[in-house]
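Recap slide: Chemotaxis protein MotA, sequence and predicted structure.
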Amino acid sequence: MKKRDILTPVGITLGTIMIMFGILSSGGTSGVQSFIQVSSVVIVLGGLMAALIINFNISEIKLTFRVFKESFHQSDLNLRELITLFIRLSERARREGLLALESELEEVEDPFIRKGILLAVDGIEPEVIQDIMDAEITALEERHQRGRSIIEKAGEYAPAWGMIGTLIGLVLMLNSLTDPTTLGPKMAVALLTTFYGTVMANLVFIPMAGKLENKTEQEIFIKQIIIEGVIGVQSGQNPKILEEKLSAFLSEEEKQESQEEEAFVGEAANEA
């Protein structure tokens, strides 16, 4: 399951507010009008799209909107809940056998976990399960990298196209040197394309690419835990040993929270 990641829109909004604050604090509402130039936006966005179309094929371009959408969502898979799931599966497998785990799959939504458990139920060797699931992680990493590269390239091209727009403006400005009073306004307009390109790159594209890379690393980390859990269940590992093994992936803070919850549950059970 995925839930909305509010930090991405909050970050973009905060960055926009800071830019607007800088503009308004210097020039007031009239200063805002000085930063609005349709032709500069068209040059940056149009040039950016042209560069991306040249750089990538159609199937990769189609990924752009889905990649953007991913940066506004995050997985709600909790590591402690994941460990609890594998402990439960391990206990049932030792008690009733691996075939009994098929009924547990109805409550499992994650396709990677389902696939691993089904491989275990089918009696596949642990080494083969490891290879199959590692191959899926490699494929996932490649897909994510390919989608992320579009955003990374956009972050590279946006400032460059901003500079191209500025050079166009400077050439036009130099061609009208006969009227010195127009030099200042024309220079301001010429610089706006660089402004737009730089803002797009550093407020949107580059931060989004960084977030997507972090999300990929986190997803791979979770899938590695899942592999360890599946192999532990398949090999009939003692649930306590499996718990200790999987708990090694938790941070110290998560371990502390887990111990506090266990202590609370134990106290509640004793009172009852």
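The chain has a mean pLDDT of 84.
Residues 2-79+127-271 form one domain.
(End of recap.)
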